[in-house]
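name: query_chain
kind: protein
chains: 1
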Amino acid sequence: MQDKLNLMIPGPTPVPENVLSCMSKHPIGHRSGDFQKIVQRTTEQLKWLHQTTSDVLTITGSGTAAMEAGIVNTLSKGDRVICGDNGKFGERWIKVAKAYGLDVQVVKAVWGEPLDPNQFKRILEEDTNKTIKAVILTHSETSTGVINDLKAINNEVKNHEKAITIADCVTSLGACNIPMDEWGIDVIASGSQKGYMIPPGLSFVAMSKKAWEANEQSNLPKFYLDLKQYLKAANNNSNPYTPAINLYFALEASLTMMQKEGLNNIFNRHTRHQKATQEGIKAMGLNLFTNESFGSPAITAVKPENVDAENIRKTIKSDFDILLAGGQDHLKGKIFRIGHLGFVNDRDIISVISALESTLSKMGKLNTPIGQGIAKTIAVLNKE
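structure:
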């Protein structure tokens, strides 16, 4: 059946019907008073979501644009930085940092394990001359389904006093609690196609006062991603360049939905769906790739035995029109990933676990009685 695809990947995520309807409106002038009102409202809503009184700026571009903006607006060529690397997106940070001539020291963990805050602590404490300018890391590493301890790592950065934290929160913002002001995070990058529940095309950079102070010393090249220009425009409820107008319509609608649900309810929903997915996976005899104690609320990675993970994905896509994410690089064919991020409800979780159990049974790879996995998932959902 056409047009029934259910996205259960870490992005893009499902989009609510009313958000799609808002996108279908005729564009308006991006220098008009009507559009300025939308910019003003969404800016305040973005601050609410980030739990900050600091600046949150909107860029027409992907989450990687926000990540790159975080670097080029706070650092200078040759600056010493620490990059956390425990997955595909940690590797991306390293590539961006090196592309701009930064002196990169890597704190590494094997894929499937979280970054160790004590490694950051040791390096930062040894830096008695305060030459480290930034600690750069991914909060929710979706390539493996790991959530890194951003709060603990950021505390070590604050103890250093000179360095700033630049965090990729692309798949954690809107899924778990990230109180920017309370934790004292300096730069947060995120993207529209994740917890924001709208299509790809917008990214967001939140900047603390300390980040703006670092900006005054930054000499890395920037033009389209020059956040000073975005701040100047935002102060006038505008954009420095032509924005994705219809995505702004969607953004306002989605953030209004999120405000109606409430932050705690949003976080609890993601945690509940994460647990229901994990427990259903285990009940049907499958292994979680990442220990559930540090699993991401956005995605669950599964490592099946004696069966190619890509075959599972292809069969579920063919039989049920449910799209799961595959493994990346050396994990291709070894794991698959179930997204439970953004506009996801109980029905979606029940559907994907049922489809997975049915698929394994069809392939002759289900090692537990059929129905055991979905029964556990429903029990968790009913209990929680």
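note: Residues 17-260 form a domain with the Aspartate Aminotransferase; domain 2 fold (CATH 3.40.640.10).
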